[in-house]
Amino acid sequence: MKRKHLTQHERFYIEKRKDEGINPSSILKSIRFLAKTGSQSC
């Protein structure tokens, strides 16, 4: 089943990366990678 909403961790990650000047497509790729590896369950 696919998730449709971002977790609080993902929202924080996006905000932090935007502040660093990372472009949105790179942020999205990183989040997809984190989701596949299960790293955000911490």
Overall description:
- By secondary structure, this protein is mostly helical.
- Helices cover 62% and strands 0% of the residues.
- It has 2 helices and no strands.
- Helix 1 (8-19) packs antiparallel against helix 2 (24-37).
- The longest helix has 14 residues, at 24-37.
- It is globular.
- It starts with 7 loop residues before the first helix and ends in a 5-residue tail after the last helix.
- 0% of the residues are buried.
- The mean pLDDT is 81.
Count of runs of 4 or more consecutive helical residues: 2
Outline the low-pLDDT stretches: none
Helix content: 55-70%
Global Rg: 10 Å
How far is the first residue's CA from the last residue's CA?
20 Å
Helices and strands in order:
Blueprint: H1 8-19, H2 24-37
Helix pairs in contact: 1-2
Summarize the structure.
By secondary structure, the chain is mainly alpha-helical. The protein contains two helices and no strands. Helix 1 runs antiparallel to helix 2.
